[in-house]
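I had to read the description of the data format several times before I understood it. In essence, backbone conformation is discretised, so a fold becomes a row of integers matching the chain in length. I therefore recommend that a typical entry be quoted early in the introduction. For illustration, here is how one protein appears when written out as sequence plus structure tokens.

***
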Amino acid sequence: MDTKKLVKAWFDQWESGDFLRLPVTENFRHTSPFGTIYGKKAYFDLVEKNKDKFLGQHFDLHDGIYETNKACVRYTARQGDDFSLDVSEWYYFKNNLIEEIVAYYHIGEIREERKLQE
């Protein structure tokens, strides 16, 4: 399967709510501003405990770069009428599955010392 199809399968499974069929390796790693989760089982357990935060989302994919063993996708995740999150993610593949994702997004207020001055 090519990398674009694997990324599409990732988003399709999330939108359907069938996260147990995500195309990931047993050693899957997911890194985000919240930290790194190691292993498919640990990732699925976290999703199971937090279904209200993970499921029921729709994804608007804006850009993608697809190579043989990696891809980068920029998208907006939406859940209900009041949640929207802009994300860029790197995907790394092994044996036609996703082995690692590194996600970049903003999760909070900007500290006062980091705000731009007018």
